[in-house]
Amino acid sequence: MKALLLSALLWAAILSAQAQPTQAWQQTHGAFVVNEIFQDFIRLKSNRLVGIGFSQFPSATGRGTQPMLMFFNNAGDSLRTVMPPPPPQTESRNYFAGTALSNGDILLVGSNYEQNIYASLLHLTRTDSIGNIRWQRPLNLPGYGWAYGFTSRALLALPDGGTLLTVADSYGPSSPSSLTPVPIATVVRLDSAGAVVWQRRYGSFHGNLEVIQALPDGSYALCGYQRTSPNQTQLLTGNGWLLRINLAGDTLSSRYFGQQVSDEYLHDVTPTPDGGLQLCGEYVPQANTGQPAQGWLLRLDSLGNELWRHYLPNPAAGKSSLFLRNWVLQDGKVLVSGARDPAVVNVTRLRGYVAAWQPPTTGAPPVLAWETSYGPLSSNAGTNSLLDPNGDLTVYHSYNPPIVGASGRDIGLTRFTNVGQPYVPDLCRTPPVARATFATPAPDSLVAQATAAGAGPRHAQLVAWHWDFGDGSPGASTATARHRYAPGVARPGLRVTLTVTNNLGCAHTESFFPFGTLATRSPLTEAIDVFPNPTAGAATVRLAGRYAGPAIRLSLYDALGRQLQQMPALGGTGAAGVREVPLRLQALPAGLYWLRLEVPGQPPALRRLLKQ
C-alpha cells in the first residue's frame, strides 16, 4: 500500500511540473437579443470553423427557431452567418448535427416542428462549403418518424459521399391509451443523394445512441444510453450503452454499464493505441433523486473488458459535472472536455471545463495532470469541441448576458494551445487490395468485375470503385462495368486499372492486362513519328527513314472509337526517303485521339495523340 501511495505522489509531482495549456483567445458573438445556440461544431478542409444550430425568433406560439450556420476563421472571427427561413406551416426549424463531405459540401440534419401535427420531423440539407443550399428534403422513417433525441456528432461521412446517422426516433405510443411516442435508438445509412440505403433500430424503448466513431477494424462504435425500469412500475434509470456494428448495420456487440439504482450516460467513445476504447459521460449515484451528476471516465481493453473507471469529484455539495468529449493523447493522457459547476455559492450553472488525466497504474487511481475552466459563470458548455493535430483545442459555449434587461443567449468560442497532440489511429494499416475478374464477350468488349475479397481489416467493406480502361474514356464507378473499345484498341498490352476504397477511406490501385501483355512494341508504332504531341492544333505524321515495309494506312479516331479522318498512306513499294502527312486538328475539341496504323497481314496498331 505504501508503494502505491508513493507511486501516486510521484506521478502527481511529475505532472504538476508539466506545461499547462494556454488560453490563446476567446471570442463572443451575438447581441443578447435572441437565443443563438450551436448544437454542433465542425472544421472544414478550408480550415474554417462552422457552428451548426439555430436562432430563436418571435412566433405565434411564443418563440420559433430558425436554422443557423455561422462560419469563423481560425482566430474565431465571424465570416458569414446563414439562416434559411423555415418553410410555410413550419413553426420551428433547426440543425442539430452536420458533417463535412469529401467534396467540401456540408450535410446537415435537423428537425421541423409542424403547426398542424405538433411533431418534430427530421429533415436533411446539403450546402456548399459556404452554406448555400444545394438541396433539402424530409427524412421519412417508418413508425411515427418523429425526431425525439438530437445529438451533435450524430453524422459520420463515408468515403462514397454517403453518411451514417444516429437519432432517437419516436417509434410508437408509450401505451395503448396514449398517443405520446417513445424514443428508440435508430441508425440510418444515407447515400450521396440523401436517400436511405438502410435503417436499423437497436435496443428497446427509451434508448439513444449519440456518437458514431470509425474503428481500425472497419467497424463502428456507438455510445449513449438505454433507460429501463427494473419491474416496469418503477421510474426509469439509465445505463451507459456501447454498441458496435458493421457498415451493413449488423450488430457485432452490445453492452450496458450501470446499476438499477444509478444513472449512467455515455457521451463519447474513441479508440486507444492498444485496440481498446476510451469512453466518457456522466454518472448519478442515485437516479431520480435530484443528486448532481459526476463526470465519468471508462477504459476498456481490446476484448471489451473494463480496465478502470473514474468519477470526477464535485467541488461542493449540490454541484455537478459531466464529460462530453474525450481524446487519447500521444503521451498517453486522456483529455476531456465538458462542464462543471463552479465552487461558488448560489451559482449552479455549468461552466466549461477541460482537463487531462494520466491513466492509472495497477491498483492506483488516475492522476489529474491539469484542469481549467472557461467562459463566464453564466455559460453552458457546448456538446462538441475540436482538437487539432498540433494540440490546439477549440471549444464553444452559449451564455446568458451580463446585461440587465437583456434576454438572449449568445455564442462564445475559446482556443487553448498546448493541450497535447491527439493519438490518431492508422485506419489504413491493413489496406484494401484491388482484385478483379474479366470476360471478353467480343474482341472489342470487356466485362470487368471487382471481387469482394481484399476489403482490408476484418469488418471493412468496399464502398467505391473506379475503372480506368486505358483508352482515355471517363471510366466507370461501379463494381461491375462493361466497356466497348474503339476498333483495334482492345489488344495485348492494353492496361486497365482498378482503384478500390473501403469504408475507412483507404484506397488501393492495381493494373491488369485483360487482353494479354506484349513482349515487344509493335513494329508499326516504331515506323512513324508524330510531332508535336501534345499539339495545339496541327501535327505531322512522318515515316521513319529506315522503314521499307508495305504502305501504312492512317486513320484518326476519337476516344469513343468514332472515325474522324482518313489520311493518305505512308511508304509502300518503291517509296524512298521519309514521307510526311499533315494532321489538322484545329476544328476538333481538346482531348485524347488515336491514330490507327494498318498494313495488310499484320494486326493494327495505335498511337496516342493529345489535343490541348
Structural descriptors:
about 600 residues, mainly beta, Immunoglobulin-like, 5-stranded antiparallel sheet, 2 helices, 42 strands, about 5% helix, disordered N terminus, PKD domain-containing protein, Ig-like_fold, PKD_dom_sf, PKD_dom
- How many whole angstroms does the radius of gyration measure? 32 Å
Shape: elongated
Helical content (DSSP H or I, runs of 4+)? under 10%
Number of helices: 2
Number of strands: 42
What average pLDDT do the residues reach? Answer: 82
Largest sheet: 5 strands, antiparallel
Portion of residues in beta strands equals over 45%
Unreliable segments of 5+ consecutive residues: 1-17, 173-178
Strand pairing plus helix content: what structural class? Answer: mainly beta
- Give the termini separation: 79 Å
Report on the structure:
3% of the residues lie in helices and 51% in strands. It is built from two helices and 42 strands.
